[in-house]
Description:
The complex is a heterodimer of chains A (91) and B (428). Chain A is an alpha+beta fold and 91 residues long. In chain A, a hairpin with a 2-residue loop joins strand 3 and strand 4. Chain A is built from two helices and five strands, in the order E-E-H-H-E-E-E. The mean pLDDT of chain A is 92. Among the domains of chain B are: 80-106 and 211-385, Rossmann fold (3-Layer(aba) Sandwich), CATH 3.40.50; 395-428, no CATH class. Chain B has a six-stranded mixed beta sheet with strand order 4-5-13-10-11-12, sandwiched between helices. Chain B has a four-stranded parallel beta sheet with strand order 8-7-6-9, sandwiched between helices. In chain B, strands 2-1-3 form a three-stranded antiparallel beta sheet. Chain B is globular and about 75 Å long.
Amino acid sequence: xxxxxxxxxxxxxxxxxxxxxxxxxxxxxxxxxxxxxxxxxxxxxxxxxxxxxxxxxxxxxxxxxxxxxxxxxxxxxxxxxxxxxxxxxxx
Amino acid sequence: xxxxxxxxxxxxxxxxxxxxxxxxxxxxxxxxxxxxxxxxxxxxxxxxxxxxxxxxxxxxxxxxxxxxxxxxxxxxxxxxxxxxxxxxxxxxxxxxxxxxxxxxxxxxxxxxxxxxxxxxxxxxxxxxxxxxxxxxxxxxxxxxxxxxxxxxxxxxxxxxxxxxxxxxxxxxxxxxxxxxxxxxxxxxxxxxxxxxxxxxxxxxxxxxxxxxxxxxxxxxxxxxxxxxxxxxxxxxxxxxxxxxxxxxxxxxxxxxxxxxxxxxxxxxxxxxxxxxxxxxxxxxxxxxxxxxxxxxxxxxxxxxxxxxxxxxxxxxxxxxxxxxxxxxxxxxxxxxxxxxxxxxxxxxxxxxxxxxxxxxxxxxxxxxxxxxxxxxxxxxxxxxxxxxxxxxxxxxxxxxxxxxxxxxxxxxxxxxxxxxxxxxxxxx
Lengths: 91, 428
């Protein structure tokens, strides 16, 4: 078992069209590192040059925004679901 | 005839064709429409505008569609008026209301964005439209899609006001009430949207949709006699309206419609959901999301997508921001109704309450021109007013019953000699 990561449409070209992939890691940061190993090029889309999450990227662990948890140090475990979602307008 | 050159990432400037692209594939930046202003200049003139229909489509060249508009042909060009009585109460000289509470057909400024979004969705050959909404967008998508013959899926938080639920259901959409906050609805919709081939107006066709809000700004300027007001107080949920009003001013300046185009913009939010106001007050560029708790449900977006740009637009203009408590929101709704005869929704209460505060703080000078943006209708958000407005006086259908209740209050007449109490007698 591993962590399920849901990939947004704009990044699915890098995951060969898959909307969901499996990754390993103990934190969100580790997970993104593993994602990069499996799908090279994907991390620079999500993080800026300094490795910080880009301004318009939202990451959710089991439906909760990681900014309400421990940010990119939020813990993840086998069976968790992580979503990467662009900022969305609304009203 | 199209005036759209293409789409462009607001962050890294990367160019895209005018298709269904809503975030930059490289940096996740938001996507903006790129116009051919030289071509626009040739047909978009004050003289040409004078003979055009009074709807938002009079600004056709500055809206991102390819052919003729097909949706929302009667939307926009809502009332704009000088608010004399309210000005007196607030102690200011020149106050205006831009009143989208009577927008056709769904009584909020969301008719504007949806008119543009659905015209574009039809051009892009979608047969189904969808949205995530705090209520007003739901009403607008449901209504305009019904008339346009499009299938419609509407996602809302399950705790919305009854008026907003009914005003969606009547158009027979698939209405999905999600047990969660708007931000949770939005996240779900991002995932639904990546599985189904729908035009999600606030997601995959957002670059086109968002441009509709500019018409609110064009109208303020045109209705003020091609003049830019000095102060504009604007409600903020996702923050898009602020950025689009800022853009409308810049564009009209670029096209030579107005010369001195300086307006200070102010963001208004509810205290129970003020992520943009907080960011502005901290002069920060990081918008911290919040968990909303306010009666102003149409503004209850804790994770505002355009929060960063809204903050920048406000600070660049020299404006500021303030928030209003639930109590202040209700008082402001009553004040607007009693002084100007406009029944606005809770969001309008937020905007007026914030305008009042900014005036009292001296942020907005009392002798300069001020526009308060009213964007929705009070009939949709009645719950917070229940028990707050007094009650109707219940009487028997007899003259005696009426006079026993009111004779003492009608000036210049005793109960026995008054034969007809004129309407408004209590004020006479």
